[in-house]
Design a protein that fits this description.
The protein is α+β, with helices and mostly antiparallel strands. It has a single domain, classed as q2cbj1_9rhob like domain (Jelly Rolls, Sandwich), CATH 2.60.120. The longest helix has 19 residues.
Length: about 260
């Protein structure tokens, strides 16, 4: 059954995410970038992106794409997800370089220099976080103003292969909490205002009040997520032998006030 953009927009506004099945344009794009994405995992120059005893390749901005998603003169990113972004969100496609996030069987394994509390949070709360709230000297600051998060599957996956996880409606909680803290300051000061305490409380509220949803993505399937959405990665619970690889785009194209809106 075909779902209209109106219905998807309502879901996006209410839940904070909406999903798009694989279609011909996005599958063509996936086919065109898959080899480049896979090569990142074995590139010695990118080895510093491996974490948790080689079970997660972080891969931030590792894909050498242009602002339309083209790699090596291949096709640009296209299909229903892109149409929705441009028509419904009113956001011209201006992509950052894609993150190639690869999860391996056994994820997560504790890093030697990781605190017990940090690993416990990753294991039990799936490292749930909101993008753009950067940690510096033990405090959080709002310093990256993304337009949205777009996750795209690059391979078919089996159940339990560390799916992407979101908390329904958490973007509304985060919005209210950050708004209450930052509205007292002019937006040019926001990057220097500590928000760690209010952020942690908002996360706790989301865990208590919001439904947790697992989103496994096969090749060409995409999920568009609100920029203020609490999200994370589930532990590996699958017999799948190969990696689970997603490509994420998080273009930083908004001014602070537009970023902190619904």
């Amino acid at each position: 059954m075909t779902v209209s953009f109106t219905e998807l927009s309502e879901q996006f506004n209410e839940l904070g995410w909406c999903r798009f099945p694989a279609d011909t344009p996005i599958l063509s794009w996936v086919d065109s970038i898959r080899r480049e994405a896979e090569s990142c995992l074995s590139d010695p120059a990118l080895a510093h992106w491996w974490r948790y005893q080689h079970t997660w390749f972080v891969g931030v901005n590792c894909l050498a794409n242009d602002d339309r998603g083209r790699v090596n003169k291949g096709p640009g990113l296209a299909g229903a997800a892109v149409n929705f972004i441009e028509q419904t969100l009113g956001s011209t496609l201006q992509l950052d370089q894609g993150q190639i996030s690869a999860i391996m069987p056994g994820y997560p394994r504790a890093d030697p220099d990781q605190t017990e509390a940090s690993f416990r949070y990753r294991l039990k709360r799936e490292a749930a976080h909101v993008d753009g709230l950067l940690l510096e000297d033990g405090e959080r600051y709002a310093r990256e103003y993304h337009a949205y998060i777009l996750a795209i599957g690059l391979h078919d996956v089996e159940s339990g292969a560390s799916p992407f996880v979101v908390w329904n409606g958490s973007h509304k909680l985060i919005h209210r909490s950050l708004r209450s803290e930052l509205d007292a300051y002019p937006e040019h000061q926001w990057p220097s205002i500590p928000i760690g305490d209010v952020y942690k409380q908002a996360r706790r509220s989301a865990f208590d009040e919001c439904q947790r949803v697992e989103l496994s993505l096969n090749a060409g399937e995409a999920v568009l997520v609100h920029r203020l959405m609490l999200h994370g990665t589930a532990a590996w619970q699958s017999d799948q032998r190969g990696a689970r690889v997603l490509c994420f785009f998080r273009p930083q194209t908004l001014l602070p006030q537009a970023w902190l809106s619904l």
